Amino acid sequence: MDVGVALPTTVGGVWDEPDLLGSWAEAIDEGPFASLSIGTRVASDAPETVALAGAVAVWTRRLRIRCSVTPQLHSTTWLAKSMATLDRLSGGRVEVALGVGPRDEDYRALAIDVARMNVQEIGTIARRMRWLWQGQHLSDTVRPVGPSPVQPAGPSLLMSTGGAASARSAAGWADGVAHTILGPGEVEVAEVLDVFASARTAWAAEGRTAPRLAVAFWCALEETSPQGARAQVEEHLRDYVDWTPPAFLDDIVPRAGFTGTVPGLADTLRRFEDLGADEVTLIPTGTDVRQVAALAEAVEKTVG
Question: Which residue, among 239, 193, 195, has the nearest Cα to 218 in the 3D structure?
Answer without folding.
Answer: 239
